[in-house]
Amino acid sequence: MDPYLDFDLGNIKRFNAMKEVNPSLKTLVAIGGWNEGSQKYSAVAASPSLRNTFVQSALKFVLDQGFDGFDLDWEYPARRGGSPTDKVNYVTLIKELKSAFEEHGLLLSAAVSATGETIDTSYNVTALSQYLDMINVMSYDLHGSWDKVTGHNAPLYPSNLDNTADSKELNLVSCAEAWLSRGASRSKLNLGLAFYGRSFTLSDAQNNGLGAPISAPGLPGRYSGESGMLTYYEIVEHLTTNEWTYRWDSEQEVPHIYKSNQWIGFDDANSIAKKVKYAKDEQLGGVMVWSVESDDFSGLSGIKYPLLRAAYQMAKGSSGVENWVSEVVAGRFCKCFIFIISDMDRSSITMMASTPQYHRQPLLCHLQPLQLTHHILQANQQRIHQRPLRMLHQQPRLNCVQEAALSEILMTVECFIIVPLMVLLSEHTNSFVKMGRFLTRRLSPAIGLIW
């Protein structure tokens, strides 16, 4: 049990009270995640009595606390400590959840793997499409230091270096096709967008292209502190120094940067817009973001949240999309699905800030000191709450929630946001709820939010 958590259910009640401000607001509670593993979910899914207990407990909690649904993030059935029977048992668990939830008009979603091997091992896609309201494909972490060579975190298309059947699957288009070809419903499929990059330490600084040998993960981020991973706000901070070289991969439709022996593959506003355009063209349900707080929220480039803004503008088909998005596309886009909590196991609260009009140089950014990946995000104290939140470690306070709030971004997009249960049980929820009320007062009544 995390000693920093305060299990006061009053926080949940205050959280769900945001629906009094915006009656269209929808809230889901999520459990699971990478750190949870698979073993305990495997045991539950295999036992009729444990499944019934799980379903009834989840239903009771959702109803008692006033949520509108439930998100299951089991990573992954029949893998990582699971059982070969998980694939069948997972469908049974989802079916029983759906049966119980549907009677009460509740939503059910799941976060799922992106690649064919895990899909075939873990999921009966046709059955999941029948019972789930949303299928959220985690189409990122497709390459990293585990490959022993440089590679993009989440390329849109394959490269000419992808010369094996497995490597040709490691891009967003192939991830979508993997689910669709196995029977997934287009209208329920949400592709994941990464607001972070994967970094590498080159074996030879002179060999700095795609597929170059590496000696180790990239250096830890200044604020995130994790080797081999950098948030977008850390990446754009590098770009302001003019010490890094930027390259656009015209095959994979994503950028990377390098300096000396450091190499980072990531998404920028251009690549995000191209991915959303693909989702629109394919008439998918939408996109999800992992995770919003990793964007450039300080906006010293002239725009806050350039990645989120690019996704929204392309989804909306607005003529206000930046001039680097050459083709403006109008068309149907069911919803923009956004994860706003980065990691329930680290109790990391994420907040969405305002975004002014686009600046024409979204890469020219500078970031003030902050800490998000392993710590609690602080809201603007003057606007949102009276006293500072206690952080897990001492870090600079953020000032990220501004007056021109979320409505500009979400005015015409149905948006679902999920918050893990552990966050709602924490001492930090009160300030998070106040922030949510502040934002929802400025949202169109037609917008549904799942925090």
From TrEMBL:
Report which residue ranges the record marks as coiled coil. none
Q: Which reaction does it catalyse?
A: Random endo-hydrolysis of N-acetyl-beta-D-glucosaminide (1->4)-beta-linkages in chitin and chitodextrins
What are the GH18 domain coordinates in residue numbering?
1-318
Query: What PROSITE patterns does this protein's entry cite?
Result: GH18_1 (PS01095), GH18_2 (PS51910)
What is any one GO biological process for this UniProt entry?
Answer: polysaccharide catabolic process
Xref: Pfam families: Glyco_hydro_18
What InterPro entries does the database record attribute to this sequence?
Chitinase_II/V-like_cat, Chitinase_insertion_sf, GH, Glyco_hydro18_cat, Glyco_hydro_18_chit_AS, Glycosyl_Hydrlase_18
Q: What is its EC number?
A: 3.2.1.14
The record's keywords, sorted A to Z, are: Carbohydrate metabolism, Chitin degradation, Chitin-binding, Disulfide bond, Glycosidase, Hydrolase, Polysaccharide degradation, Signal
Against SMART domains, the record matches this protein to:
Glyco_18
Q: What class of enzyme is it?
A: hydrolase
* Gene Ontology terms for molecular function: chitin binding; endochitinase activity
- Could you name the Gene Ontology cellular component terms for this entry? extracellular region
Q: Which PANTHER family does this chain map to?
A: CHITINASE, CHITINASE 4-RELATED
Q: Give the UniProt family note.
A: Belongs to the glycosyl hydrolase 18 family. Chitinase class II subfamily.
Q: What is this protein called?
A: chitinase
Q: What is the lineage of its organism?
A: Eukaryota, Metazoa, Ecdysozoa, Arthropoda, Hexapoda
